[in-house]
Amino acid sequence: MAERFHLIGVGGVGMAAVAELLAARGHEVSGSDQRDSDTLARLRALGVRTHVGHDAAHVPGAAAVVVSTAVRETNPELVAARERGLPVLHRSQALALAAAGRDLVAVAGAHGKTSTSAMLAVALREAGQDPSYAIGGTVLSLGTGAHLGQGDAFVAEADESDGSFLNYAPRVAVVTNIEPDHLDHYGSEAAFRQAFEDFAARITPGGLLVACADDPGSLDLARHARDHGTRVVTYGTGESPWAGDAPVPDARALDAGTRAAAPGAPAPGTAAHVQVRGLELTPAGARARLHTRTDVPDVPLELAVGGAHMALNAAAAWCAGVEVGVEPGAMARALGAFTGTGRRFEHKGAAGGVRVVDDYAHHPTEVAATLRTARLAAGGGRVLVVFQPHLYSRTREFAEAFGAALALADEVVVTDVYGAREDPVPGVDGSLLTAAMARQGAGERGRYVADRLEAARTVADLARPGDLLLTLGAGDVTELGAVILARLEDHA
To answer: Pick the catalytic residue: 39, 77, 113, 270?
Structure first.
């Protein structure tokens, strides 16, 4: 393992986590980012040498250079690294190095992987373990998204967007769902699904796949993995059939039924191994029971975060935590300590009787789940949204689904596309989504305002006391909360 690392784009949450972990392991770490930020300030306090702006002179000699997919080949630091013959690693490869010697628990899925991995890290810590973790967001109760612990477990959010999750060899792999996305990288839904099969195939011998039985793609993966000899535990609401194994005989060995079944052997359709039952959603959180299809009493679960999707994420984390040695009841209680992550229904403030919440939702399924949670949290108030589409390819491919999801809100302002790694595509902008809303019969509730600052002011002008206002998207829409709050204060 190299002794020196330089990370291009170190201010991103994923890259910052890797930098923090490498520094904690005693390596000399430097990095650069386009602009200064609180993240860079925190890294400097940890001993990471940071640079603002990209320049070939920032690249130290004899260092391994770490990049993400967002770093273009024309970046001067990457150009310099290749010219000098320095090793260039993807972020996931550097993270795998940082996790060496630990039991890797890799959490993947089109949606929910940040919250699930954060839940797991918080609960393992609460249960008395000292896990390492690398999560693509700040865990509110931990104050960071990365930590090098003394325990055996290493929890990692595994990114499927560019196929980099195939650089991991996990002891436990969690797959929350497999809904087609990132087709700009994969080219087809079939290739996207194949990547998850390849991910499951990388589970170490004797390891475990935890998969959501409520999601058709994840359920198909569970069946495929089981048929290829992998231990599998499914979780869900119990409404989706699991054509797999006999009931699980012991809550401490959730996969025992899977071990007993011969790969490919026919079996009656039964519900998920771990079922979320009696779910009650409240504005402050959720309550449920985890049923393991055994004579063992149901395990009570009480969460400080709301939404049916969060209850499913908690079930996934519970399965993984039990697998790495936490007593089932203790694991369920520990999940109650999770209070959320940055940019996941994060309260930003209130003014004029209007609450402002920020969320990273950038796929139609995520947007719909967030708006359902917002509807509950709003009580009798309206739900208003300013949404920034992320990627031209995603905006084009899922315009109709975005229209249906956004129609769940009372008022929607769509701003222009945040291109990230993509160049603009003629004819693809936020108006595609408001047009889709109109086809859903919700045209009067949707407005397209290209400029994001003007969009923020527009949605603030629509708000009235008692409303809940959300900034949604994976780009810099998160910065609009302050603009909206200032506008609301002016009105007040």
So the answer is: 113
